[in-house]
């Protein structure tokens, strides 16, 4: 007996497939929504580069946040210029993966030039307690700034240097407390835009909790700006870095694109030396 597929049976089969696709998509959407912070923050992984274990001679310090956390971080006092004035301190805000120590090598040329540095270790990263959220990381950055001012005085000059997710923290802090300068490495316009780039199949605009809306926050910037981005960046498209540069209302702004650079390897193309030169031009113009 020869079986035949009737239009009715075919429609029923296609309907079942559609229902299963909707169910699978719905489950995936719910999973991404409820576990988005586990996808966003990766404190237990390391950023592995050939330079990961290199570091300036930092002092281990403890920062205290407004909500009662103690954060183990790393500090280097700045030198004084020829007029006896402390050089600026670089507040480094790392990305969503790894620890502050993974990025310490990036500050070697900067510290060697006499600038201070504070590598902030976020809550929930490294040995620190707490769970990372946008509001929590902003509190961490404020605690870092308070620490520098406590050590150096309220008029301490601080340059915020954010990398990837850290650019979101840096822009948020800059909107609250204007820096002496702002450095954005591989930064996004917002976490919503960055998430949409990778999870385009989901309605992330309506799902994301930690938006890190840097596009809006940078509109209030009145400090010198340096934007660094790799043309080959597959994590945050270079167009987002270019948009951040274009959106900033300041006249003293510099854009540096590395044609062969990716997301975590700009150091290999001289980014730290470029940052040092940028700092020297603004804070040590008469240095011999």
List keywords for this structure.
2 domains, alpha/beta, Rossmann fold, 288 residues, elongated, 8 strands, eight-stranded mixed sheet
Largest sheet: 8 strands, mixed
Mean pLDDT: 89
What is the total domain count?
2
Look up the CATH topology of the largest domain: Rossmann fold
Helix content: 25-40%
Low-pLDDT stretches: none
- Name the CATH superfamily assignment of the largest domain: Alpha/Beta hydrolase fold, catalytic domain
What integer value in Å does the Rg equal? 22 Å
Strand content: 15-25%
Main β-sheet, spatial strand arrangement: 1-2-4-3-5-6-7-8
Broad shape? elongated
Counting DSSP H or I runs of 4 or more residues, the number of helices is: 9
Would you state the CATH class of the largest domain?
Answer: Alpha Beta
CATH architectural arrangement of the largest domain: 3-Layer(aba) Sandwich
The string of secondary-structure elements, in order, is: HHEEEHEHEHEHHEHEH
The structural class is alpha/beta
- Count every beta strand, where a strand is a DSSP E run of 2 or more residues: 8
